[in-house]
Amino acid sequence: MIIKRGECRELKRCLSSIRGIVSEIVAVVDPSPVENDTTDELLFEYGAKEIFLPWPGDYSAARNAGLKHVTSDWVLMIDTDEYITTFDFDEKKARVDAFRVIRENIYVSEDNALSNTERITRLFRNRMFHFEGRVHEQVTANDGAPFSTENADIILGHSGYADHDRMLQKSASYRELLTRMIADGDTDPYVFFQLGRTYYVEKRYPEASDAFEKAIDAGADTADEYVESLIETYGYSLLETGRAKDALALTSFEEYADSADYLFLCGLIYMNNARFEEAVASFTCATKCHHSSVAGTDSYAAWYNCGVICEVLGDHTKAVLYYKKAGSYEPALNGLKRLGFSD
Questions:
Q1: Of 242, 265, 284, which residue constitutes the final position of a domain?
Q2: Taking the model in full, what pTM does it have?
Q3: Contact 283, 305 (CB under 8 A)
Q4: Is residue 219 part of a domain?
Q5: pLDDT number for residue 12
């Protein structure tokens, strides 16, 4: 782990969650003092190996500095604002050298607490991998060759985006590093994707759309796991900037036909282009999917949008049926009230 001083409350939760799971803790810490900081005391309490490194302005450099001091056979990368909620891994049964864990992100949007999940590579064999990229660093094989991953039954909670102001501060910091990477000649589509995400977080949708377009032009490959998120966030950016007609081009990715998040986006795109029959069909398909990252795209939010369409078109009978399928979702309950079907 790499640690920024002054985050001791989260650090204690993180360390407590990994106690009894890991055999050693290697922590890379900026030695610059922070008033009332107890990082050193906490790390000592949990038996961590503390590596002092002035912040190099490069997350991969810090990660790689820590890797040099790891002695165990496996490495689990975890941040201070993360914590283990589920851990079920048997290294004797491992068929690959790297595993993806689930990260459950809590974030704030329009004063509402929301959540989504993602799979990220965080567990890998020691001495076979390193990190690349100044920010949003990627696990990379030492020989540069592609490598296979499998899903591990490990879940990390993540509260780093739960505070809106802090999320904006992080976004600005990440954007500075990403912009520097691009200025230095980095044309990796993943870098443009991450740059677009920083703009999206700050609701700078035209800049986000531009960055996502550059990621696509740079050769983003649907075989790469992050590209579904790229397509979806690009789609929302286009809708936010009134480019619903342009967004129609994003409804043809059959690779994501089993993703509720993607089908939900397609429903919104059709809806914003007044193609209501296709919108309802897409939202309905989303409710039949087994893969969903954003809460509600496979259930209440999809049914609610179907209800809105039917209500607008004057088919109140169907609207009521859809609103009821949305359960206790407040906007759907309000729809029922408008139509005179409240309890």
A1: 242
A2: 0.84
A3: yes
A4: yes
A5: 94
